[in-house]
Known about the structure:
The protein has one helix and twelve strands.
Amino acid sequence: MNYKLINMKVFGDERGKLVSLEGNINVPFDIKRVYYIFDTSPEQERGKHAHKTLEQIIIAIDGACQFVLDDGKTRETVWLNRPDIGLYIGKNMWREMRHFSYGCKLMILASTHYNEKEYIRNYNEFLRFIK
Ligand code: TYD
């Protein structure tokens, strides 16, 4: 399975908490793109695709959601519900996001610019691609 959970160092004091994300330091790639997902709801699922080349770190800045991660052989689920834990997902991993809490906010750091051509959005095509 090409994913892992990364505990980010938290700088906290009476003023609050801070996490710093730096490419090739605590993020294991050069960060080319940042995007975020908000205004989510529990009835709606997202994802349902894989990437041929992209690596990502996903952080639930606020709220929670569940990730389904699938390498074509095994399927595992991971809850993201802490702003100090990053979910790293490497290439060739099918992912689905579901059970969003209302107003969940996900921040995603990506290793490449957006390129629809490197998405695989059909599960059977994903299985063929990784063979
Ligand atoms: P989509 O891949 O459906 O999001 P998710 O992975 O959360 O299910 O993307 C939604 C739309 O946003 C789709 O039309 C593509 C567009 N998009 C961009 O233009 N740039 C980006 O960086 C991303 C991630 C998506």
